[in-house]
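Notes from the 1:1 (GR / supervisor)

We went over the backlog. Supervisor wanted to see one worked example end to end before approving the batch request, so GR pasted a single chain during the call. The sequence is below; no edits were made to it. Supervisor asked that the structure be written out right there so they could see what the output format looks like.
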Amino acid sequence: MTTFDHPIGAPTVSAPTVSALYIYPIKSAGTGVPLQQSGIGPRGLTHDRRWMVIDTAGKPVTQREFSTMRLIEVSLTEVGLVVTGPNMPVLEVPWQPLGNPRAVDMWGDFLTGVVISAQATDWISSYLGGDFDLVFLPEDSERWQPAHKPFGSLLSFVDGNPFHLISEASLADFNRHLNRPLSYAEFRPNLVISGSEAYAEDFWQRIRIGPAESDGMAVPGAVAFEVVESCAGCAILNVMPDGTRGSEALRTLARVRRHGKAAIFGQHLVQDAPYAQRDGHIRVGDTVDVVDFASAVNPVYVSY
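Structure output shown during the call:
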């Protein structure tokens, strides 16, 4: 296991801040929707990964299997999503799906989604060249983190945690090792942080995000998070901006950021509040107050 050195609890010149926010309404599609602010619910940021492409067996379809999903772009309107893709007509996805319930198999975790519409089914099937559906995860379909993760949280169609955080300094440092520098989008974060040291987030345990604090006391509107798990890199990191597949990014991550059996970058969070109180608001420019530090890099739990 590689040990990453960091001056635990060392003071910084200024408090870190949220420099960017992203959601990914359709799991694994496009490069994310940038936001200036976002509401928070029990499953994470509003609209994040509430839609997903599934195959005939009801299993998730992602850029791991179809790298051209990178070229699908999603935007938000008052009435739903607008979805575009190369050589495809514009697809409008209403907030309320029009189709029937459909069984979804999230790596052995079975739940019920709702088919968006016949038009959406035809669109995604034509784009990917097969039989696929676009489904929505309704509020009454509960999916909880598995028992091997000791911080149970309600989930959307994310892989395993409701929030993903990376830092500008960490990305800048990692890009020094690459021939083709990566953008934030290629790590698919929800929160990008500025003003911290490179890889300082590896050791964060609890943070608060919100307006600037006074005398170390939380102010109304701050949202508390538990930093629960280092993010293990996967094959999506090798998908290029043009939708083709490379190899340098994940290979380099495995060389310079090896932690046990995983190659890590960024951290996963859950809201540090009782389930019924998991709400709030985050804005670009909010202060990040690091409340607790760990003495070792946050773990990576066995994934799906």
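Supervisor's comment: The chain has three helices and 19 strands.
Batch request approved.
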